[in-house]
Write the structure tokens for this entry.
Amino acid sequence: MALIALDDAHDALKSGRRDAAIQAMREAHRTLEGVGHAPGVPVAHAARRLGVSEPTVRSWIGRGALNTITGSSPVQVEPDSLRRVGRALDELRERGQDRDWLEALLDYLHDLQTRRSPTLEEGLRQLGRGELEPA
Amino acid sequence: MAFEVLRTPQVRRAVEQLRRTQRARHEAARDELRGRGCLAGGYRLASTEGGDYPLCARHLAYAWRMITAYLDDARIVILAVDRHTPENNPAAPLAELLPGLPSLAVDAKTSHRVVMRPPRRPR
């Protein structure tokens, strides 16, 4: 049933019937919800969906950017977080076409690294303590 | 207008360790700060994290750099003089997502691109 509904949606989109397409997709969604399946998405599938490697997906899980289904083993990615990250990546990739934007991003990353250098941090601490002398 | 240029104790210690060329570059930069203020500070750090004052970085000799803070319109503090030797490329995690980034990152390893960045504007 879900496949039929998706085909209907496809045909409706091709013929410019947007409302019919949305209705058919909702029907497919309802059908798929009723089918017993895993609540999450395997890491390999998530990686394919996001267009990144599996280690990257695992890294993002570790950093909290992607949520997982509690207790899942092997680990499964929670679908809502996968969609959220997917949208963010789409936006990032779109902006990434702009060389000026990429350069500004690179400057920001390098400066962030500078800001976090131990020497600068110590300098800021000494400034905070008022430990200053004529240069 | 002459600017008052101060430094942190760690800068004094770092300068004592510099070789002749590096120290000469540092002294030239310091003297320029006295005369031209923030215009001699190099480029303003783009990141807004981690400080109450505007920060600038200026490259000295080789990998050495000088980082300054601007307390007000008349006082400048040299916070750090150190070697810019990043342990990792901060752009690396994004290279997988943004195909154009690696070529820019390679360019950034030279000092040319950094030097081309505009200096901090006077307040």
